[in-house]
Amino acid sequence: SSELTQEPAVSVALGQTVRITCQGDSLRNFYATWYQQKPGQTPEVVIYGNNNRPSGIPDRISGSSSGDTSSLTITGAQAEDEADYYCACRDSVGNQVVFGGGTKLTVL
Amino acid sequence: EVQLLESGGGLVRPGGSLRLSCAASGFSFSNYAMSWVRQAPGKGLEWVSGISGNGDKTYYAASLKGRVTITRDPSKNTVTLQMNSLSADDTAMYYCVRDRYGAFPEYLQHWGQGTQVTVSS
Q1: In this model, does residue A1 exceed pLDDT 80?
Q2: What is the pLDDT of chain B when averaged over all its residues?
Q3: Which chain B residue is nearest to residue A6, measuring alpha carbons?
Q4: Fewest CB within 10 A of the end CB: N or C in chain B?
């Protein structure tokens, strides 16, 4: 299967911890890359490989993987974390990229 | 500074074709894989196609394979997406994206501002 499934929407209280998940068969073989997209902006990588953060991404954002599920965790969510988050991965065969449907994160 | 400038979008009739171009600058063009990613209004991201840094491998979304062709020209530092048999479902903003790596487009690092494609009669 080449599908990645995410929760459509998640909310978190300011300062609390939230986890966004991404499920798909291809995640058993390949790591997910996580993208953050704020309104009116282009996406930005926040997690890649095995829980790697690009420079400039705060360490309150972390990633993990188990079986067919990859997770993005924000510990101590801030207002600026409110955004759409997309996971992406190679498909099971490894010759195309598949995005999850995206999760809209609201920080209350 | 990495710069990606897309062009070629516009209004096209159903069944028509369009050729999108991406002019790249600010980096060693042949060292990086490139992709096209689209986003329909109010919808999520959809990867369309990718090409390796040296151009020897091309990759396509299964849903679009056969209707799109990606190429790159190292002499002009451009990436092109030829799209055929367009339908309303192809209406979206199309982004040119430079990868962090050179082989497979798995880290979509730098994004252009996009070119709008609208398919309508």
Answers
A1: no
A2: 96
A3: B44
A4: N
